[in-house]
Design brief:
The protein contains eight helices and twelve strands. The relative contact order is 0.16. With about 250 residues, it is α/β, with parallel strands linked by helices.
């Protein structure tokens, strides 16, 4: 039998210290991310979580060597730091809506092409993006999404219907999952979305449907949020764990 040689720990950088990044940091502090070390966190202010400190000094953060940087602070953070991050390492982002800005998209594309680093758009709280990618091998595939925003008073009401690109410009912090689905499939301009204020319902809902010559793919999720619980953080944790496995599915 060949001798087993463990891989050295990979250096992880995080942009953000909020509802998404904090559970990832907690998971690492608890030993739940083998193969990774949190080498730096960039946030709006310096603070501590377990053995991890954040910094508000972007120059200090980007002076460190990273194998992967995760942007977990929203579209404005990707716009502010994405290009610099890509010049340093591969980047994962939870802020697909930011890529509706053509200027930013082009700048990130150029940064990645010049360095060989890649920007991965994470699926976040929605399922089925593998099915969207499969169906979109058909150039005539049609993707439709429905998103209920956070519950509120009054009856359910349609507040927007149109392209995902336009929705991302109007609701940049609310349609990241739709933008991720569109980028996995026919693109931000071809993918269509309905955005609703759902009224007094227990939780919001995300659904997608894509029709192609291969059939129809449906996916629907009703994500829960609470203290210490965030589906986007869970998505990142699952992806980081998969990166350390010799055999994995998905």
């Amino acid at each position: 039998m060949p001798e087993y040689k463990p891989h050295p720990e990979r250096r992880l950088g995080l942009i953000g210290f909020g509802r998404i990044a904090s559970p990832v940091i907690d998971c690492w502090n608890d030993g739940g991310l083998p193969g990774w070390t949190v080498a730096g966190v960039l946030a709006r202010r310096s603070r501590q979580r377990g053995s991890v400190w954040s910094t508000d000094d972007a120059d200090a953060f980007f002076s460190k060597p990273f194998d992967l940087i995760i942007e977990a602070a929203g579209p404005s953070a990707l716009a502010a730091h994405g290009e610099r991050a890509l010049r340093l390492a591969d980047v994962w982002t939870v802020s697909a809506a930011a890529l509706a800005d053509v200027t930013l998209f082009d700048a990130l594309h150029v940064a990645g092409a010049r360095t060989g680093h890649r920007l991965r758009v994470m699926p976040g709280a929605i399922a089925g993006l593998d099915g969207v990618a499969m169906a979109s091998v058909d150039p005539a595939a049609e993707l439709r999404l429905d998103i209920d925003l956070l519950p509120g008073p009054g009856p359910r009401a349609l507040v927007f219907s149109g392209s995902v690109r336009e929705a991302a410009k109007r609701f940049p912090d609310s349609v990241n999952v739709a933008a991720a689905a569109a980028l996995a499939g026919p693109g931000l301009d071809k993918a269509q979305i309905n955005v609703y204020h759902p009224g007094p319902v227990p939780r919001h809902r995300l659904t997608l449907s894509i029709t192609s010559c291969f059939g129809i793919v449906h996916a629907s999720v009703e994500p829960l949020r609470g203290p210490g619980v965030h589906p986007v953080a869970a998505c990142l944790i699952a992806a980081l764990r998969a990166e350390s496995r010799s055999i994995w599915s998905g």
